[in-house]
Design brief:
The chain is α/β, with parallel strands linked by helices and 296 residues long. The chain has a domain of 203 residues: Rossmann fold. It contains ten helices and 13 strands. The strands form four sheets. A seven-stranded parallel β-sheet has the order 3-2-1-4-5-6-11, with helices on both faces. A two-stranded parallel sheet has the order 7-10. α5 links the parallel β5 and β6. α1 crosses α7 and α2 runs parallel beside α4. The mean pLDDT is 96.
Length: 296
Amino acid sequence: MKLLVTGASGLLGSKIIQLATKKGFQVYSAYHQNLPKQGTPVQFDISRKNCVEKAFKKIRPDIVVHAAALTHVDRCETQKELAWRINVQGTENIVKSCEQHQSYLTYVSTDYVFNGEKGNYRETDLPTPINYYGTTKLKGEEYVQNLTQGNCIARTSVVYGSIPATGKTNFALWLLDKLRRAEEVRIVTDQTNSPTLNTNLADMILEIVERRLMGIYHLAGRTALSRFDFAKTLAAEFSLNTKLIKPATSREISWTARRPHNSSLNVTKATRVLESKPFKIHEALTKLRDELSPHK
Ligand SMILES: NC(=O)c1ccc[n+]([C@@H]2O[C@H](COP(=O)([O-])OP(=O)(O)OC[C@H]3O[C@@H](n4cnc5c(N)ncnc54)[C@H](OP(=O)(O)O)[C@@H]3O)[C@@H](O)[C@H]2O)c1
């Protein structure tokens, strides 16, 4: 089974290629600037239609997981053209090539398609993004929904984890590093999400593609937490000083893009349908501690 993963050098993609390789998929790891460590590397810019077509023609993938995106929320706000080119046109290019080669597609989307006014969003809730990142990811979803053959939209939220392939950091690793240096951090109390361990998410996505499930799935951690509570829980799990974590409000932090107040995802559907269940927070953090253990 030929599996093409875009964004293979990213936080999620690198986990997917690691686990898919172990499962015996023939893995093609698509990247733009950072060489992935596993799978057969394939370099192309998703915003360049002819490059995407050329790669698909050569690989002829049975399955595609499209995880490449411009994920920097503030950059999407200040560089709208670039965000549109990567997140919208890039997704359109992937969708068209999937159509041409009859490849099954899973597109990774975000909780930021919701405005965050109510939280606990189900797959059937109406998305109304409040920032440009969310707008571009939702537009990508629309292209995927136009595909006539098998496809799935997997929405996730605040992804964190140990990164096997790149030196990039994420909220959890950044926080652990700060606390180990005994530095104080200010974390917002007024943003709630469903923090998601990349390993748990990669497992769920691979089950989705193996079973060729269709439609929208919310694939995220099972525990909704404010950033502040997530930080405190993480610190406690790693026996670090929780007192270094000070509360702040979004207004005090000068972000360019607006963030949803509560974009937590309801994962009832995934919990019911999948064998790989969304993890509760303590299950996820125990797994993360294990993955980061120096003996691994
Ligand atoms: N991280 C989160 O908290 C979060 C939350 C919700 C949803 N998501 C979604 O989950 C997916 C994966 O996110 P992530 O955190 O793993 O992302 P990430 O770590 O920021 O990685 C982004 C990936 O996209 C690739 N990419 C960017 N521009 C590209 C281009 N023009 N052509 C080809 N590849 C390009 C990058 O390749 P190079 O590194 O090689 O340049 C990298 O592999 C994304 O679709 C994102 O929208 C993420």
